């Protein structure tokens, strides 16, 4: 047994070692229009400096990619560095525009991606068809991925990984105000009347 550091990104290791293929456990199957991100990595040709560094094995974690200060412009970079991303469609909205030749219908989709371990991304996209809009929204969410700081919300539980936000966070949109406060594990969601 050796203590060697991996020389490839985790997603590239999965792409080039096909014997470790796992089937999705949530019951969803990807259609023919939605290709598997791991399969796409096999035929990926990087076009950016960050993509070349990931493919060459110089960058093997998402933290290293952020520290390089190079922009993430290829979705395959995210697929290579964080291979276990899950996607969720939050909203599908039909938008109509009236023209002199009739109504033009487009679809607006909001999607979220994350690995349930500190990385999350949110993206929106518009297209003439729902499937195209979903694909574009998932791609936008992967390109907008961020690392979320986590901490323990109570002085009683200072060991182990963080399960809450590390400090108080306020957010506002129109008349809605949201405040996230640290809490102990198992506290759940609490909301006030005002």
Describe this structure in a few short sentences.
The protein has three domains: 1-84, no CATH class; 85-148, Double Stranded RNA Binding Domain (2-Layer Sandwich), CATH 3.30.160.20; 149-194, no CATH class. It is of the alpha+beta class. It has helices at residues 10-16, 37-42, 49-56, 62-67, 75-81, 130-143, and strands spanning 86-99, 102-114, 119-127, 146-147, 169-173, 176-180.
Instruction: Summarize the helix and strand pattern as letters.
Output: HHHHHEEEHEEE
- Major β-sheet, in short? 4 strands, antiparallel
Strand order of the largest sheet: 1-2-3-4
**How far apart, in Å, are the first and last alpha carbons?**
58 Å
Mean pLDDT: 84
Number of helices: 6
Whole-angstrom Rg: 20 Å
Q: Which range best describes the helical content: under 10%, 10-25%, 25-40%, 40-55%, 55-70% or over 70%?
A: 10-25%
- Shape descriptor: flat
SS-derived structural category: alpha+beta
Low-pLDDT segments, ≥5 res: none
The proportion of residues in beta strands is: 15-25%
Question: Please, how many domains?
Answer: 3
By DSSP, the count of extended strands is: 6
Can you walk me through this structure?
- The chain has 194 residues and is of the alpha+beta class.
- The protein has 3 domains: 1-84, no CATH class; 85-148, Double Stranded RNA Binding Domain; 149-194, no CATH class.
- The chain has 6 helices and 6 strands; from the N terminus they run αααααβββαβββ.
- It starts with 9 loop residues before the first helix and ends in a 14-residue tail after the last strand.
- The model has no long low-confidence stretch (mean pLDDT 84).
């Amino acid at each position: 047994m050796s203590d060697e550091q991996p020389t490839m990104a985790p997603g590239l290791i999965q792409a080039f070692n096909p014997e470790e293929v796992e089937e999705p456990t949530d019951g969803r199957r990807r259609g023919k229009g939605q290709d598997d991100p791991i399969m796409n990595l096999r035929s990926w040709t990087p076009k950016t400096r960050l993509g070349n560094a990931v493919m060459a094995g110089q960058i093997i974690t998402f933290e290293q990619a952020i520290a390089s200060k190079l922009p993430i412009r290829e979705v395959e970079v995210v697929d290579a560095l964080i291979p276990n991303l899950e996607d969720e469609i939050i909203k599908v909205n039909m938008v109509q525009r009236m023209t002199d030749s009739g109504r033009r219908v487009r679809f607006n989709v909001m999607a979220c991606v994350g690995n349930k371990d500190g990385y999350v991304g949110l993206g929106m996209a518009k297209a003439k068809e729902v499937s195209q809009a979903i694909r574009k929204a998932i791609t936008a969410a992967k390109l907008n991925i961020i690392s979320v700081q986590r901490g323990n919300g109570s002085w009683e539980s200072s060991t182990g990984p963080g399960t809450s936000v590390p400090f108080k966070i306020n957010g506002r949109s129109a008349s809605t105000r949201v405040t996230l406060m640290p809490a102990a594990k198992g506290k759940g969601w609490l909301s006030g009347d005002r």
